[in-house]
Design brief:
Elements (H helix, E strand, L loop, with lengths): L7 E3 L5 E2 L15 E3 L12 H5 L25 H7 L8 E6 L5 H14 L4 E5 L4 H11 L7 E4 L3 H11 L3 E5 L16 H18 L2 E6 L12 H5 L2 E7 L5 E9 L7 E7 L2 E4 L3 H5 L10 E8 L2 E13 L7 E4 L3 H15 L6 E7 L11 H12 L8 E3 L2 E2 L5 E2 L4 H10 L4 E5 L9 E5 L2 H10 L2
Parallel strand pairs: 4-8, 4-9, 5-6, 5-7, 7-8, 13-17, 15-16, 17-20, 20-21
Antiparallel strand pairs: 1-2, 1-3, 9-10, 10-11, 11-12, 13-14, 14-16, 18-19
Helix pairs in contact: 10-12
Length: 455
Amino acid sequence: MARATDTYVCQSCGAVYAKWAGRCDACGSWNSIEIEEGASAPPGSLSASAAASKGRAIELETLDGDVKAEARLPTGNAEFDRAVGGGLVPGGALLIGGDPGVGKSTLLLQIATGLAERGTRTLYLSGEEATAQIRMRARRLGLTKSPMSLATGTSMRDILATLKAEKPQAVIIDSIQTLWSDSLPAAPGTVTQVRSCAQELVRFAKNTGCVLILVGHVTKDGQLAGPRVVEHLVDAVLYFEAETGRSFRILRAVKNRFGAAHEIGIFEMTGGGLKEVPNPSALFLGEGGEPATGAAIFAGIEGTRPLLCEFQALVSPSTLGAPRRAVVGWDSARLSMLLAVLDTRCGMDFGRHDVFLNVAGGLRISEPAADLAAVAALLSSRLDTPLPEKLAIFGEIGLSGAVRAVPQMDTRMAEARKLGFEKILCPNGADGDKATSRRRVEQAADVVAYVKSLA
């Protein structure tokens, strides 16, 4: 018979240890390793009764069976539906995280009322706020007439009993860290409790076809708190992001089994709640006017949506031994690489200059297609030459200095054309509409020559 041993679990990341330690080697947290109460046997061991019983053979099937396509549940919020892939899927489980105060509860209350007004039996269950607080928010948002059901509680046993009795079609839990199961001696919010409660709720959603939306807290690093297994249990993981001092919010899907990952929905926070932004390119572009040096318009793609934004660069002579490099909204390592390419392949020296690069509007860009726009903005500031008006730019630059093609080039040009951009600076190989004036480039040196010709 296997001897019972104690198991120690990091309450920040869920890493398991055989003995206690002051620091977690997996995430670096101090004093976060605690004993997992209720563990009576080491992992992988079986009890005597379980070892004596025989398992039941699982029925095997082939790939050519009939598939019943479930109709999605529209929420009435086009940006939310876009982020989740076109609507909520019955039996699907979603996990939404975000910083405190970003508007998660406001968004989900609007989603819950939108579902209820379209005939979906919806239950909003809060473990953090009292009923009076939720009603005050609903009154401020003008949602008090919605037929949505509301409840508060944290006991997992009571919640499951309520769900089995009410049989809702959609359930919103705010938040998973507040729930606790009396079958476990651990405190609410610990790894054991979060994992157990999430498993029970996801199992209920899969068995009944109910849509489950969970709210998760985030750590100081911006990651969802709790064990990583919770993100693997659910079908979609979304982050609700906000830039300090900005009124817009971005709902970004980092995992989605029913739609495109990295799809985004954009909202604007107002006194009446979160409003959809149907034309985000206009939100992130400047006000227009006279062309300024160091400004370049990038035609990007976020998920499946084309999005235009402005890159701003400032290059100034440095008096320091090590010139400064500051980047906001883009990858600093990517900037260092492009500066090395411009120096080595194009003869443009930035070694005695401070370089500052910013994506206007607080947007964060991660795709390599922004290389050409960043380089154009840097050259425009370095040569003190404004780029032409109504010019959109996209393209990836390799270490050899070659400008490489990027995905969905025609979609980028169509979006730029729709917003009145008549000129495109892009890699060779783009087709697009012949009515758009395009300048195809093959090398980074071509971009340098193009900017110099504007002087």
